[in-house]
Amino acid sequence: MAIASTYSRLSDRFLPQSARANDDSRSAFIAEAKALDVALKEMVAKASKVIDDSGGDGVIKERLAIAFACSEELQSRIQGLLSTIVELRERATELKGGSGLSGFSKGVLYASRNEAILSEMKEKMASAVEMFKLRGQLSIETILGDIIRSTYDIRQALKEAAEQEVINTISRAPAGYRSVDELKSQFMAGSREELFEEAIPWSAGRFPQRGRKPFYFLSGGAGLGKSSIAHRLCTCLDQPDRPALGASFFFVRGGGDLELTRLFFSTLAHQFALSQPQLRGYIVEAAREFYKRGDRQQMRYTFEELLRDPLRSAEPPERMPIIIVVDGLDECKERDLVRDMLRYLLELVRSLSWVQVFATSRPEPQVMSILTSAAVADIVYHRSLNDTLEKWNDDVRNYLEQTVPRIPSVATFVRQHPSALARLVKRAGGVFIFARIAVNFLDTYQDRPEEQFRLLMSSGGAGVSPLDALYLQVLRSAFPPDELQFAPLRHQRLLALLQYFALSPEDCTLGTIALLLGLLEEDVVMMIDRLRSIFLTNSTGTVIPLHATFREFLLDFRRCTDTLYLVDKAKGSAMLATACSSAFSFRSVTDYLRTHPRSEEIALHAYIFYARSHWDMFLKDAEVTEETKMVVQGMIEAMPVYMRVSKRSGGSEVTSIRDWLKNGGLNTRAIAKICSDFMQAAAYSHAWWDSLQRRPRAAPEVSPYQVERHVSKFVKSEAPEIRRVDTSKDYAAHRKLEKRIQDAGVAELWSRYDSRDRNFTPSISITC
């Protein structure tokens, strides 16, 4: 506006009085100055309107105003106007005239010259105004639009970054279909075509022959390919041009968070926020509020506040329904919680017409009781693979006919004995996992194909399923009974390996298994190699049974009919509890602290993590004997070392010990004595390391009262007479550890902060 004022004052300050005789020219010049004034006012008004209409908050509007004022294009135009002002000032000095008679005479004398100058100034003024309004066909509106768009892009990028930060805080498990192992993702092209001819239209909301049923439940026995079908459906739905897959969760037995319901609904919410942009903002806002109350909340709150409510708030999508795929409901070990989880999923599809669920499971009671009840018959479509074995036997036949003849030594035998392959197809009975293991078996033992086919056809005894008979045959072929009976040490090593696979809550690498079982790694490699037809080693080196039924087979005497391979749960648990307790030696923990978790010694790190997490779980399932009691005694003696790497304080462990002893029939006083000894050692050691953390330069101090309080909390109900504790033995044990650390020259190593361990600070030092 200052520019316009400067122009309007030109006539008063620079035009001689006599020059005003040229009134027409002067008026034209002033009119152009006023036009500039109008243009500037319009620019300000337009800028204000655009900024007000931008939809931003006060901060955003202020940034827009600054961005406009500092615009390079606008600054360039203003500089052009200022240059014109200077030029016109200089030009105005050339006008002749002035006050009085003399000035009037000059004005008359130079009227023509003044007229030309004024006309030129008017033209220059008009040109400057037009140039300011529209230079190079770039209007003020265009400049404003560019600024708005740039600011919007920046604001959008900041918004997306802030949203992604919130999304990253949503608790989740690696349960999506892209995270599953190779076994669950294998699917033979062309198989199960009839099912997909039904499932794909269903996923698009087309199911007219049975009415709209938004919950598709696919059940079937072990090994029928349910996971492969679910995985294949996910890949069909998750297309860039039409992302109909909202979320997927593949349960995995023994998979940690993958066999629990704790992260189920939060994982779905996380995936929805990533896969469905139109829902992201609603989930982000819900997550902001939800996590104000903590990250571990009951399933009901997670379902309602993190998934259901934000989806209800969103506008229904214009395209096809959004699908949730849930695989392996039977592999979730929390049977009671599975029922609640399913009820919430059913509530979701009832309340949101654009959400559908595809779920698979073995026909387990906790699943069937919910999904096949009359109360949900109007929304659940149940398809049983057990009813299709004969109908879809061609899928297994195609698989076997395509793969078996490709095995070099088997190909000749099959050509000479075509009925052998036909009998194998019949033996498989439509079960894909049987066919897969049979192919692996033939590929493993290629030297005697006739013998291997004969073994595959053996029944294994009355009532034994073909798959169980196949498992037994693989074990007998890899480790013949005669060999095991005459080599007890070899049998012992094999049994330890089978106990691990039958009872372990998580899968490990070959190196970790060897450390856990106290075996040479080459021995473990040899045994796994012999059994490779029923095991898979994934991309991380983790060894996984080809199917969950193998674990079940090993533990069931009705299925595993040869006692040489049968796993006794109590004895196996005792062996694994003992193996875990052996991890907490001074040497093992020193080596653990010395190596980086990403180094070649990763097996040692996994071993320590595994042992500290599961030793008491195995003990809980072990038989109470004098030998297994020594596991507890050994843990008490190893407590100063154990607490250096444990994130637990002893409470959960002593609860497991107490439950284990109660099941063993011990009297109350005996139980209280063992639990008291353990809790005292744990409480003292935990306090000792905490004291070292708080005062790294001073000798640790532990209050006997503090230890007594912890012991009383856990055992006073069984033994009220326990009032005072003697911590002299605990003090001596920790002084002994201090001396050993100093003598070994590893004080800095044991004191060093490591995020793998309990919450130490970097400055801890051990002093004697």
UniProtKB/TrEMBL annotation:
Keywords: Repeat. Residues 211-362 form the Nephrocystin 3-like N-terminal domain. InterPro entries: NPHP3-like_N, P-loop_NTPase. PANTHER family: AMELOGENIN. This is AAA-16 domain-containing protein. It comes from Phanerochaete sordida. The lineage of its organism: Eukaryota, Fungi, Dikarya, Basidiomycota, Agaricomycotina.
